[in-house]
Amino acid sequence: MDFGxxxxxxxxxxxxxxxxxxQLPGCERLFSCIQCGKCSGTCPxxxxxxxxxxxxxxxxxxxFRNEALSSKTIWLCASCYACAVHCPQDIHITDVxxxxxxxxxxxxxxxxxxxxxVLAREFYxxxxxxxxxxxxxxxLRLAMKSNPLILxxxxxxxxxxxxxxxxxxxxxxIRGVHQLRRExxxxxEAQ
Amino acid sequence: xxxxxxSVRIGVYICQCGxxxxxxxxCRAVAEAAAEFPAVVVSRDYKYMCSDPGQSLIQQDIKxxxxxxxxxxxxxxxxxxxxxxxxxxxxxxxxxxxQMVNIREHVSWVHANRKAATLKSIDLVRAAVRxxxxxxxxxxxxxxxxxxxxxxxxxxxxxxxxxxxxxxxKKVYLVEREATIGGHMAKFDKTFPTLDCAACILTPKMxxxxxxxxxxxxxxxxxxxVDGYVGNxxxxxxxxxxxxxxxxxxxxMECIEACVFKQPKFSDEFNLGLGKRKPIYIPFPQAVPxxxxxxxxxxxxxxxxxxxxxxxxxxGDRKAINFGQxxxxxxxxxxxxxxxxxxxxxxxxxxPYYGYGHYPNVYTALEVERLVNASGPTGGEVxxxxxxxxxxxxxVHCVGSRDERTNxxxxxxxxxxxxxxxxxxxxxxxxxxxxxYIDIRTPGKGFEEFFQKLLNEGVHFxxxxxxxxxxxxxxPSEENKLVIRVEDTLSAFVRRxxxxxxxxxxxxxxxxxxxxxxxxFNIGCSTEGFFMERHPxxxxxxxxxxGIFLAGCCQGPRDIPDTVAQAGAxxxxxxALIDAGHVEIEPNTAFVNExxxxxxxxxxxxxPYSAITVNEIRRIAMVNPVLCKGCGTCVAACPSGAMQQNxxxxxxxxxxxxxxxxxx
Amino acid sequence: MARDYLYFPxxxxxxxxxxxxxxxxxxxxxxxxxLRELEDWNCCGATSYMAIDEESAFQLSARxxxxxxxxxxxxxxxxxxxxxxxxxKTQDYVKKYPRVHRHVAASxxxxxxxxxxxxxxxxxxxxxxxDVGLEKLESKVxxxxxxxxxxxxxxxxxxxxxxEVDRAHNPIRMDEIMKAVGVPTVDYSLKTKCCGGALxxxxxxVGVRLNYLLLKExxxxxxxxxxTLCPLCQFNLDAYQVExxxxxxxxxxxxxxYFTQVLGWxxxxxxxxxxxxxxxxxxxxxxxxxxxxxxVEQYV
Lengths: 191, 664, 300
Prior knowledge:
heterotrimer; A: 191 residues; mainly alpha; Fumarate Reductase Iron-sulfur Protein, Chain B, domain 2; 2 domains; 0% strand; globular; C: 300 residues; Glutathione S-transferase Yfyf (Class Pi), Chain A, domain 2; Rossmann fold; four-stranded parallel β-sheet; 7% strand
């Protein structure tokens, strides 16, 4: 058995961090949380999470950045927005989760070969290049970069999709791809 | 510039208000700037102008420097205008030669930039200095107070206030909308935390109201019109027909027994639809007055005119039933009014995921009060709508409270009534009880002890706001149950708890028609819709309308002890006015410059207080200074400029504008 | 009803959700409400994009909205719940946050596109409910539904913040539409629970487990089929049934239909154009229900 320390020193917290996050769209009401747990109760995936969404909000608010960013919770969030329509304090919890995912990706704070950030990255690149995504190419590239074995499990599904004409091998590309790239290249304002 | 007022000598006093103002405004700099303004003879800043030494500072200066105008820059005039007016009066100055500047609420509390806040304060002080130079001396008028009192709403608040006043020898009119007084308290079973029977402690007071020679009780009645002003209100009360002569009915209930409807058939409002009643009924056995009511929507005589009228037969010689009874209006004169109109419970159908109205075994707390009540529809047995006796019960706290999507406030009584119902339901059924709470709030006398008692009775307390009540069954133990899904936040995992019965602890809300009532009585509402007190701490039972007081839940959610205490306070406030015999009225009223008025009548419909009339012979408008509240609407509307207002005369206002705009 | 709609398919309706596109076009043709596909549309910037770069997701949506703006005053109809939500979220955030507004405006400008004000983003379910109305839908019915009760499954993103498809809690419009065209519905308490979205592809076990719960509860309530309004919900519930069956040991063969397929069928559309053939699960049942109609083998 592993008996690691669970107590936290205040020096391990980053109290300024949540105040920066509060500036981001959707995160304004972070500090209004009354820890009622409605988000967790309504979340279809909280039953698989290491920290329930309520606890994530508290970790963020108290500045426990490492714990929040390395949680499994943020990757289990399927962006169904149930918490956002239920929260009695009108906190846009889905946006908070997006923000944590972005920061975790930026700082590489997720398990190696973990499929979700890989998928997100591949999707991002594909759309940047072609303007549209193609489910077939996306799954293929996801498998190559995370775990090729998952393709084996998809053989049967793939077979059926081809048979019913739902798997397009064509890689779509829009005409205005240069226009799109110019748009995406527009720099953000500094915070 | 000041010739018309002789030589104007102004003193300016800047209050630091401890650090309330001084932390954001450089008070010394404001005082120094003010010293340079024309006609300012002396200018000082001080830690607390409102304190005794602060006031004597002003009084000494008035004598020493022969001041004839004073400007005080401090907090809101709501708080201390009266203080400083009195202070200058003591030194022999007319009260209205004092002008206040609000540099706390309008400056220091709302700004962060010290330099800008200081400059703004200087501008405001300059405006006041220029304005006060134009002031004229004014005197307050007096009105007498009619000794009778109107109380609106006959719940425990209205009952207690009525008895207090009546016992003090004052004549009271108690007007109640329902057929009986008693309000919500009459529906409760026990009261927390002592578990006294609600009826046992309430009904003696209800009977006392009925029997008191000083109380006129009008039930089934509404206030339809309110005119007048403090001390002299004229009120019209509409008495709806109950088709029973109140003076003749003795409450024997024989008519009800004899009704052609052999079985009660119609939804019983007093039992919130859980029981049935006949078209002729008495809401509950101890109703006051103990007089029957006929519902004309349901009574066959009203619907077809062809009823056998067995009720009339049963009533016999008493002849109390009168199908031809008409609506009546009564006019009364009172000096003061107490509002005790109560609250309404939150409709949980607004939160569909709790299943109220969808799953039969989901109840509101008030419904459960009736279920556990021995005189309730089930005779005190807790039996669900589907006939089952519950083995497990979930009580969901904060339904419609502490929620941005419904009501933001804490309803204050739900924690305690939920605990009480947990105890009562457990006592009646032996069921396993789960309380789902966000925070347990038990700050009253004996409340925390009651919570301890419940903990030791083995009632479950799960900290978490319930996410949903559903019939979604995941395994056989959940079949045919209502499943409560909630995060147990103290254990930090999600739980599914199957129960037979769900009790929703619904919020207390303002009455449906609170806005109409507030307009009728010309009082204020806070944003959430409860009636607004004049000051949250220091005038908690007064309103902004003189002579109208508040008691009970119409002002905000509260429990019975607090309601009774507040009702007593409202009665005392009314008594204080009555026994003083008169009040002074503000002189800031409108007046007509008779030479310029052309009698066009533009002002008449504009006045919200009906204070303006026209002298038909001279064809000029006239203002009744007692009715005028000084709102200024007529002044703005007058096309010829004939309408003016004391303390807000054109030249006073123009000087103020010039002052605030002429930057140093 | 000569109103026309701009149509934003999104990537899914061109691939795994092709039956949605086919049935919707057929349905709107019957209702004489022509659809024009938005020309040269790009990816909406959905869910996964937000996780990498929120501002780029807004830029992607903004281009589509701007293209729609250039196309005149027609409403932009987005059948995919994810596209619908992201397009509307973009509009909402552009309105609410000056920073987002400035960035989107600058981005569109550098791409030579006009600002995207005033485009109304619609969902076909809500278009049918509001612009056509239950009465008219009822009057169009020519075929009787023999499939028994269905569970209307709204999924998540179509009924969440920013949207106007229906209310967020206990939505009922799809149920009302189904009942209007003679299709009974069950009281499905999971109607707005998430199907897991992309999780079936990434955290496979968890994603599949969510779909198992959805299928099981629908069956428990006596539904013979599940009717959806989102291509991802349809895909997840449809494609993983064999796997769910293997792992749970419970048998599922439930047809997962789009509401547009059911309506098209009720209105007498050529069944070959409704994409029933593209479903994986529940084909046996569909064949039974449609058995009285000729050449059923050709379209199921």
